[in-house]
Amino acid sequence: MDMKTIKDVNFKDKKVLVRCDFNVPVKEGVITDDTRIRESLPTIEKLLADGASVILMSHLGRPAGTGFEAEYSLAPVAQRLSELLGRKVLFSNDVFTEVTVSMARDLKLGEVLLLENLRFIKGETKGDEGFASYLASLGNVYVNDAFGTAHRAHSSTAIIAKFFPNDKYFGFLMAHEITNLEKLLHSAEHPYTAVIGGSKVSSKIDVLKNLADKVDALLVGGGMAFTFVKALGGKVGNSLVEEDKIELAKEILEVYKQKGVKFVLPKDSLCSNRFDNEAERKVFPTDEIPDGWMGMDIGPEAVAEFESVLASSKSVLWNGPLGVFEMSNFSEGTLQIGRCLGKVTENGGYTAVGGGDSVAAVNRLGLAKGISYVSTGGGAMLEYLEGKVLPGVAAILE
Length: 398
Ligand code: ADP
Ligand code: MG
Hints:
By secondary structure, this protein is α/β, with parallel strands linked by helices. It contains 15 helices and 19 strands.
Protein backbone atom coordinates (compact mmCIF):
# COMPACT_ATOMS: atom_id res chain seq x y z
CA MET A 1 0.00 0.00 0.00
CA ASP A 2 1.32 3.41 -0.99
CA MET A 3 1.24 5.02 2.40
CA LYS A 4 0.99 8.77 1.71
CA THR A 5 2.34 9.67 5.13
CA ILE A 6 3.64 13.00 6.35
CA LYS A 7 7.06 11.44 6.87
CA ASP A 8 8.87 12.55 3.69
CA VAL A 9 6.96 15.77 3.04
CA ASN A 10 7.98 19.22 4.20
CA PHE A 11 5.09 21.38 5.43
CA LYS A 12 6.90 24.71 5.62
CA ASP A 13 4.50 27.67 5.26
CA LYS A 14 1.43 25.39 5.16
CA LYS A 15 -1.68 25.68 7.27
CA VAL A 16 -2.29 22.05 8.11
CA LEU A 17 -5.67 20.71 9.25
CA VAL A 18 -5.11 17.65 11.43
CA ARG A 19 -7.95 15.34 12.48
CA CYS A 20 -6.88 13.89 15.83
CA ASP A 21 -8.56 11.49 18.21
CA PHE A 22 -8.77 13.56 21.40
CA ASN A 23 -11.72 11.52 22.63
CA VAL A 24 -10.27 11.24 26.14
CA PRO A 25 -12.12 10.43 29.37
CA VAL A 26 -13.02 13.65 31.21
CA LYS A 27 -14.49 13.78 34.73
CA GLU A 28 -15.72 17.15 35.97
CA GLY A 29 -13.46 19.02 33.60
CA VAL A 30 -10.37 16.91 34.42
CA ILE A 31 -8.78 14.53 31.93
CA THR A 32 -8.36 11.15 33.64
CA ASP A 33 -6.19 9.56 30.92
CA ASP A 34 -4.24 11.69 28.43
CA THR A 35 -2.79 8.79 26.40
CA ARG A 36 -4.56 9.86 23.22
CA ILE A 37 -3.27 13.42 23.52
CA ARG A 38 0.29 12.21 24.04
CA GLU A 39 0.00 9.89 21.05
CA SER A 40 -0.83 12.82 18.79
CA LEU A 41 2.38 14.70 19.66
CA PRO A 42 4.80 13.23 17.09
CA THR A 43 2.60 14.34 14.19
CA ILE A 44 1.97 17.84 15.59
CA GLU A 45 5.64 18.31 16.48
CA LYS A 46 6.81 17.24 13.03
CA LEU A 47 4.49 19.78 11.36
CA LEU A 48 5.63 22.56 13.68
CA ALA A 49 9.29 21.63 13.19
CA ASP A 50 8.77 21.95 9.43
CA GLY A 51 7.48 25.49 9.92
CA ALA A 52 3.73 24.97 9.47
CA SER A 53 0.78 26.28 11.41
CA VAL A 54 -1.55 23.60 12.73
CA ILE A 55 -5.32 23.50 13.10
CA LEU A 56 -6.47 20.53 15.19
CA MET A 57 -9.92 18.98 14.97
CA SER A 58 -11.48 16.25 17.08
CA HIS A 59 -14.64 15.00 18.66
CA LEU A 60 -15.16 14.09 22.31
CA GLY A 61 -17.93 11.78 23.46
CA ARG A 62 -21.37 11.76 21.96
CA PRO A 63 -23.01 15.17 22.28
CA ALA A 64 -26.47 15.60 20.76
CA GLY A 65 -25.21 17.64 17.81
CA THR A 66 -27.32 20.65 18.70
CA GLY A 67 -24.58 22.99 19.87
CA PHE A 68 -22.35 23.47 22.89
CA GLU A 69 -22.55 21.07 25.85
CA ALA A 70 -20.07 21.83 28.62
CA GLU A 71 -19.36 18.22 29.55
CA TYR A 72 -18.11 17.49 26.01
CA SER A 73 -15.97 20.60 25.60
CA LEU A 74 -12.43 20.15 24.28
CA ALA A 75 -11.22 23.06 26.44
CA PRO A 76 -9.41 20.73 28.91
CA VAL A 77 -7.66 19.11 25.94
CA ALA A 78 -6.36 22.48 24.72
CA GLN A 79 -4.87 23.10 28.13
CA ARG A 80 -3.28 19.65 28.49
CA LEU A 81 -1.94 19.81 24.96
CA SER A 82 -0.29 23.15 25.54
CA GLU A 83 1.44 21.71 28.62
CA LEU A 84 2.66 18.72 26.62
CA LEU A 85 3.79 20.78 23.62
CA GLY A 86 5.33 23.45 25.80
CA ARG A 87 3.64 26.16 23.78
CA LYS A 88 0.35 27.98 23.75
CA VAL A 89 -2.56 26.20 22.07
CA LEU A 90 -5.20 28.62 20.86
CA PHE A 91 -8.73 27.39 21.37
CA SER A 92 -11.76 28.44 19.41
CA ASN A 93 -14.82 28.18 21.62
CA ASP A 94 -16.83 27.14 18.64
CA VAL A 95 -16.55 25.31 15.36
CA PHE A 96 -18.72 27.01 12.83
CA THR A 97 -18.61 30.78 13.50
CA GLU A 98 -16.91 33.93 12.26
CA VAL A 99 -14.64 33.84 15.32
CA THR A 100 -13.29 30.45 14.29
CA VAL A 101 -12.86 31.58 10.70
CA SER A 102 -10.85 34.62 11.70
CA MET A 103 -8.76 32.69 14.25
CA ALA A 104 -7.87 30.19 11.53
CA ARG A 105 -7.18 32.95 9.00
CA ASP A 106 -4.93 34.89 11.40
CA LEU A 107 -3.02 31.83 12.60
CA LYS A 108 0.73 32.40 12.21
CA LEU A 109 3.40 29.86 11.35
CA GLY A 110 4.37 27.92 14.45
CA GLU A 111 0.97 28.47 16.06
CA VAL A 112 -1.51 25.78 17.04
CA LEU A 113 -5.29 26.18 17.08
CA LEU A 114 -7.72 23.59 18.41
CA LEU A 115 -11.34 23.80 17.30
CA GLU A 116 -14.14 22.99 19.72
CA ASN A 117 -15.79 19.53 19.58
CA LEU A 118 -16.83 18.93 15.97
CA ARG A 119 -19.81 16.86 17.07
CA PHE A 120 -21.49 19.98 18.46
CA ILE A 121 -22.42 20.42 14.79
CA LYS A 122 -24.94 17.94 13.46
CA GLY A 123 -23.30 17.77 10.02
CA GLU A 124 -20.16 16.11 11.40
CA THR A 125 -21.53 12.62 12.08
CA LYS A 126 -23.84 12.84 9.06
CA GLY A 127 -20.81 13.25 6.83
CA ASP A 128 -22.30 16.48 5.55
CA GLU A 129 -20.42 17.76 2.53
CA GLY A 130 -21.16 21.41 3.24
CA PHE A 131 -19.66 21.11 6.71
CA ALA A 132 -16.66 19.22 5.32
CA SER A 133 -16.12 21.96 2.74
CA TYR A 134 -16.29 24.61 5.48
CA LEU A 135 -13.65 22.77 7.54
CA ALA A 136 -11.52 22.35 4.44
CA SER A 137 -11.64 26.10 3.81
CA LEU A 138 -9.75 26.73 7.07
CA GLY A 139 -6.47 25.19 5.90
CA ASN A 140 -4.54 24.07 2.84
CA VAL A 141 -3.39 20.55 3.74
CA TYR A 142 -5.33 17.71 5.38
CA VAL A 143 -3.77 15.13 7.70
CA ASN A 144 -5.77 12.31 9.27
CA ASP A 145 -4.26 10.96 12.48
CA ALA A 146 -7.48 9.77 14.12
CA PHE A 147 -7.37 6.00 13.81
CA GLY A 148 -10.06 5.58 16.48
CA THR A 149 -12.65 7.12 14.15
CA ALA A 150 -11.26 5.87 10.84
CA HIS A 151 -14.23 3.48 10.51
CA ARG A 152 -16.64 6.42 10.38
CA ALA A 153 -17.47 8.35 7.21
CA HIS A 154 -17.82 11.65 9.06
CA SER A 155 -17.17 15.11 7.62
CA SER A 156 -13.79 15.52 9.34
CA THR A 157 -12.59 11.91 9.03
CA ALA A 158 -13.36 11.11 5.42
CA ILE A 159 -15.54 13.54 3.44
CA ILE A 160 -13.12 16.47 3.93
CA ALA A 161 -10.36 14.62 2.09
CA LYS A 162 -11.95 15.17 -1.30
CA PHE A 163 -11.17 18.88 -1.01
CA PHE A 164 -7.44 18.07 -0.88
CA PRO A 165 -6.87 15.77 -3.85
CA ASN A 166 -3.11 16.37 -3.79
CA ASP A 167 -2.58 17.46 -0.20
CA LYS A 168 -3.86 14.70 2.08
CA TYR A 169 -1.77 12.44 4.26
CA PHE A 170 -1.80 9.95 7.10
CA GLY A 171 -0.28 11.20 10.36
CA PHE A 172 2.28 9.05 12.16
CA LEU A 173 -0.27 7.36 14.40
CA MET A 174 -2.53 6.35 11.51
CA ALA A 175 0.44 5.15 9.49
CA HIS A 176 1.65 3.01 12.38
CA GLU A 177 -1.77 1.40 12.81
CA ILE A 178 -2.19 0.70 9.11
CA THR A 179 1.30 -0.76 8.72
CA ASN A 180 0.71 -3.16 11.60
CA LEU A 181 -2.81 -4.13 10.53
CA GLU A 182 -1.65 -4.76 6.98
CA LYS A 183 1.06 -7.01 8.38
CA LEU A 184 -1.50 -8.91 10.47
CA LEU A 185 -3.70 -9.42 7.41
CA HIS A 186 -1.13 -10.03 4.70
CA SER A 187 2.41 -10.70 5.79
CA ALA A 188 2.54 -12.14 9.29
CA GLU A 189 5.17 -14.82 9.72
CA HIS A 190 3.94 -18.36 10.38
CA PRO A 191 3.06 -20.15 12.58
CA TYR A 192 0.47 -17.44 13.14
CA THR A 193 -1.98 -17.75 16.04
CA ALA A 194 -5.01 -15.64 16.88
CA VAL A 195 -6.37 -15.50 20.42
CA ILE A 196 -9.95 -14.26 20.46
CA GLY A 197 -11.96 -13.73 23.62
CA GLY A 198 -14.32 -11.13 24.98
CA SER A 199 -17.95 -11.33 25.83
CA LYS A 200 -19.86 -12.05 22.65
CA VAL A 201 -19.46 -14.06 19.45
CA SER A 202 -21.85 -11.66 17.74
CA SER A 203 -19.33 -8.80 17.83
CA LYS A 204 -16.50 -10.91 16.40
CA ILE A 205 -18.16 -13.06 13.72
CA ASP A 206 -16.65 -11.30 10.73
CA VAL A 207 -13.21 -11.16 12.34
CA LEU A 208 -13.34 -14.91 13.00
CA LYS A 209 -14.39 -15.58 9.41
CA ASN A 210 -11.73 -13.34 7.90
CA LEU A 211 -8.94 -14.79 10.07
CA ALA A 212 -9.72 -18.33 8.93
CA ASP A 213 -7.73 -17.58 5.77
CA LYS A 214 -4.79 -16.07 7.61
CA VAL A 215 -3.94 -17.99 10.76
CA ASP A 216 -2.69 -21.48 11.55
CA ALA A 217 -4.49 -21.71 14.87
CA LEU A 218 -7.32 -19.94 16.66
CA LEU A 219 -7.56 -20.00 20.45
CA VAL A 220 -10.99 -19.01 21.76
CA GLY A 221 -11.67 -17.90 25.33
CA GLY A 222 -13.82 -15.44 27.22
CA GLY A 223 -17.60 -15.47 27.29
CA MET A 224 -17.88 -16.23 23.61
CA ALA A 225 -16.31 -19.67 24.01
CA PHE A 226 -19.50 -20.99 25.61
CA THR A 227 -21.64 -20.44 22.53
CA PHE A 228 -19.17 -22.63 20.62
CA VAL A 229 -19.06 -25.25 23.37
CA LYS A 230 -22.85 -25.38 23.42
CA ALA A 231 -22.92 -25.60 19.61
CA LEU A 232 -20.78 -28.74 19.96
CA GLY A 233 -23.28 -30.23 22.41
CA GLY A 234 -21.53 -29.32 25.69
CA LYS A 235 -23.23 -28.35 28.95
CA VAL A 236 -22.22 -24.83 29.97
CA GLY A 237 -24.45 -24.24 33.02
CA ASN A 238 -25.25 -20.57 33.50
CA SER A 239 -22.34 -19.31 31.40
CA LEU A 240 -22.85 -16.51 28.91
CA VAL A 241 -24.41 -17.99 25.76
CA GLU A 242 -25.90 -16.29 22.73
CA GLU A 243 -28.65 -18.79 21.92
CA ASP A 244 -29.45 -17.09 18.61
CA LYS A 245 -25.83 -17.44 17.49
CA ILE A 246 -25.45 -21.18 17.99
CA GLU A 247 -26.13 -21.99 14.34
CA LEU A 248 -23.61 -19.35 13.33
CA ALA A 249 -21.07 -20.80 15.73
CA LYS A 250 -21.53 -24.17 13.99
CA GLU A 251 -20.93 -22.48 10.63
CA ILE A 252 -17.72 -20.87 11.86
CA LEU A 253 -16.49 -24.18 13.28
CA GLU A 254 -17.18 -25.75 9.88
CA VAL A 255 -15.23 -23.01 8.05
CA TYR A 256 -12.17 -23.65 10.24
CA LYS A 257 -12.52 -27.41 9.83
CA GLN A 258 -12.68 -27.11 6.02
CA LYS A 259 -9.61 -24.92 5.92
CA GLY A 260 -7.76 -27.22 8.27
CA VAL A 261 -7.12 -24.44 10.78
CA LYS A 262 -6.77 -25.56 14.38
CA PHE A 263 -9.72 -24.26 16.46
CA VAL A 264 -9.00 -24.56 20.18
CA LEU A 265 -11.67 -24.10 22.85
CA PRO A 266 -10.73 -23.97 26.54
CA LYS A 267 -10.70 -27.54 27.95
CA ASP A 268 -11.62 -26.28 31.41
CA SER A 269 -13.03 -23.12 32.95
CA LEU A 270 -12.76 -21.39 36.28
CA CYS A 271 -16.41 -21.02 37.30
CA SER A 272 -18.36 -19.20 39.97
CA ASN A 273 -21.86 -19.45 41.38
CA ARG A 274 -22.46 -15.69 41.08
CA PHE A 275 -21.16 -12.90 38.83
CA ASP A 276 -19.07 -11.52 41.67
CA ASN A 277 -15.37 -11.39 42.52
CA GLU A 278 -16.06 -12.83 45.98
CA ALA A 279 -18.21 -15.71 44.76
CA GLU A 280 -17.25 -19.34 45.35
CA ARG A 281 -14.86 -20.65 42.66
CA LYS A 282 -14.46 -24.08 41.09
CA VAL A 283 -12.85 -25.51 37.96
CA PHE A 284 -15.00 -27.65 35.62
CA PRO A 285 -14.46 -29.10 32.16
CA THR A 286 -15.92 -26.40 29.91
CA ASP A 287 -18.45 -28.82 28.41
CA GLU A 288 -19.61 -30.12 31.81
CA ILE A 289 -20.42 -27.01 33.79
CA PRO A 290 -23.30 -27.77 36.20
CA ASP A 291 -26.40 -25.60 36.35
CA GLY A 292 -25.95 -22.74 38.77
CA TRP A 293 -22.29 -22.28 37.77
CA MET A 294 -20.86 -19.98 35.12
CA GLY A 295 -17.50 -19.85 33.38
CA MET A 296 -15.64 -16.69 34.38
CA ASP A 297 -12.09 -17.43 33.15
CA ILE A 298 -10.21 -20.10 31.25
CA GLY A 299 -9.00 -22.89 33.54
CA PRO A 300 -5.46 -24.19 34.21
CA GLU A 301 -5.57 -26.94 31.55
CA ALA A 302 -6.76 -24.43 28.98
CA VAL A 303 -3.96 -22.05 29.95
CA ALA A 304 -1.43 -24.86 29.50
CA GLU A 305 -2.78 -25.82 26.09
CA PHE A 306 -2.94 -22.19 24.88
CA GLU A 307 0.60 -21.71 26.18
CA SER A 308 1.93 -24.61 24.19
CA VAL A 309 0.37 -23.35 20.94
CA LEU A 310 1.67 -19.82 21.61
CA ALA A 311 5.16 -21.05 22.48
CA SER A 312 5.66 -22.23 18.90
CA SER A 313 4.07 -19.18 17.24
CA LYS A 314 6.01 -16.54 15.34
CA SER A 315 3.07 -14.12 15.13
CA VAL A 316 0.19 -13.64 17.56
CA LEU A 317 -2.89 -11.48 17.29
CA TRP A 318 -4.91 -11.07 20.48
CA ASN A 319 -8.35 -9.51 20.80
CA GLY A 320 -10.70 -10.00 23.71
CA PRO A 321 -9.93 -10.81 27.36
CA LEU A 322 -10.04 -14.53 28.22
CA GLY A 323 -12.12 -13.99 31.33
CA VAL A 324 -13.81 -11.35 33.41
CA PHE A 325 -10.45 -9.62 33.93
CA GLU A 326 -12.09 -6.66 35.70
CA MET A 327 -12.47 -8.97 38.72
CA SER A 328 -9.10 -9.89 40.22
CA ASN A 329 -10.14 -13.48 40.96
CA PHE A 330 -10.92 -14.06 37.28
CA SER A 331 -8.03 -12.26 35.59
CA GLU A 332 -5.46 -15.06 35.82
CA GLY A 333 -6.10 -16.52 32.36
CA THR A 334 -5.81 -13.11 30.71
CA LEU A 335 -2.62 -12.41 32.69
CA GLN A 336 -1.02 -15.76 31.77
CA ILE A 337 -1.81 -15.42 28.07
CA GLY A 338 -0.49 -11.84 28.10
CA ARG A 339 2.75 -13.18 29.58
CA CYS A 340 2.92 -15.79 26.81
CA LEU A 341 2.73 -12.99 24.26
CA GLY A 342 5.56 -11.29 26.11
CA LYS A 343 7.66 -14.43 25.67
CA VAL A 344 6.86 -14.67 21.97
CA THR A 345 8.03 -11.06 21.56
CA GLU A 346 11.17 -11.75 23.61
CA ASN A 347 12.00 -14.65 21.34
CA GLY A 348 11.87 -12.44 18.27
CA GLY A 349 8.25 -13.03 17.32
CA TYR A 350 5.64 -10.41 16.52
CA THR A 351 2.68 -9.79 18.83
CA ALA A 352 -0.35 -7.52 18.52
CA VAL A 353 -3.20 -6.60 20.85
CA GLY A 354 -6.30 -4.60 20.01
CA GLY A 355 -9.80 -3.91 21.27
CA GLY A 356 -10.99 -1.42 23.88
CA ASP A 357 -11.22 -3.88 26.75
CA SER A 358 -8.20 -5.92 25.67
CA VAL A 359 -5.98 -2.85 25.67
CA ALA A 360 -7.41 -1.83 29.05
CA ALA A 361 -6.62 -5.34 30.35
CA VAL A 362 -3.09 -5.29 28.98
CA ASN A 363 -2.46 -1.88 30.56
CA ARG A 364 -4.07 -2.79 33.87
CA LEU A 365 -2.05 -6.01 34.13
CA GLY A 366 1.19 -4.27 33.13
CA LEU A 367 1.64 -6.37 29.96
CA ALA A 368 1.82 -3.65 27.30
CA LYS A 369 5.63 -3.35 27.32
CA GLY A 370 6.01 -6.94 26.14
CA ILE A 371 3.80 -6.53 23.09
CA SER A 372 5.04 -5.42 19.67
CA TYR A 373 1.93 -3.48 18.66
CA VAL A 374 -0.91 -2.24 20.85
CA SER A 375 -3.67 -0.77 18.69
CA THR A 376 -5.31 2.48 19.77
CA GLY A 377 -8.54 1.82 17.90
CA GLY A 378 -11.18 -0.58 19.21
CA GLY A 379 -13.95 -0.58 16.63
CA ALA A 380 -11.68 0.64 13.84
CA MET A 381 -9.21 -2.19 14.44
CA LEU A 382 -11.94 -4.84 14.47
CA GLU A 383 -13.39 -3.54 11.21
CA TYR A 384 -9.94 -3.53 9.63
CA LEU A 385 -9.47 -7.14 10.74
CA GLU A 386 -12.85 -8.01 9.25
CA GLY A 387 -11.30 -7.06 5.93
CA LYS A 388 -13.30 -3.86 5.50
CA VAL A 389 -11.76 -0.78 3.91
CA LEU A 390 -12.15 1.98 6.48
CA PRO A 391 -13.63 5.24 5.08
CA GLY A 392 -10.93 7.31 6.81
CA VAL A 393 -8.21 5.22 5.19
CA ALA A 394 -9.83 5.02 1.76
CA ALA A 395 -10.34 8.80 1.67
CA ILE A 396 -6.59 9.40 1.83
CA LEU A 397 -5.67 6.66 -0.64
CA GLU A 398 -8.26 7.58 -3.30
P1 ADP B 1 -12.63 -5.89 23.31
O1 ADP B 1 -13.21 -4.58 23.77
O2 ADP B 1 -11.19 -6.02 23.66
O3 ADP B 1 -12.91 -6.19 21.87
P2 ADP B 1 -14.93 -7.33 24.27
O4 ADP B 1 -15.66 -6.04 24.38
O5 ADP B 1 -15.34 -8.27 23.21
O6 ADP B 1 -13.35 -7.04 24.17
O7 ADP B 1 -15.07 -8.14 25.64
C1 ADP B 1 -14.63 -7.67 26.88
C2 ADP B 1 -15.54 -8.10 27.98
O8 ADP B 1 -15.71 -9.51 27.98
C3 ADP B 1 -14.97 -7.77 29.35
O9 ADP B 1 -15.80 -6.82 29.96
C4 ADP B 1 -15.00 -9.10 30.08
O10 ADP B 1 -15.43 -8.99 31.42
C5 ADP B 1 -15.98 -9.90 29.29
N1 ADP B 1 -15.78 -11.35 29.48
C6 ADP B 1 -14.68 -12.07 29.28
N2 ADP B 1 -14.86 -13.35 29.63
C7 ADP B 1 -16.13 -13.45 30.08
C8 ADP B 1 -16.92 -14.51 30.61
N3 ADP B 1 -16.42 -15.74 30.74
N4 ADP B 1 -18.18 -14.25 30.97
C9 ADP B 1 -18.69 -13.00 30.84
N5 ADP B 1 -18.02 -11.95 30.36
C10 ADP B 1 -16.75 -12.17 29.98
MG1 MG C 1 -15.19 -4.00 24.31
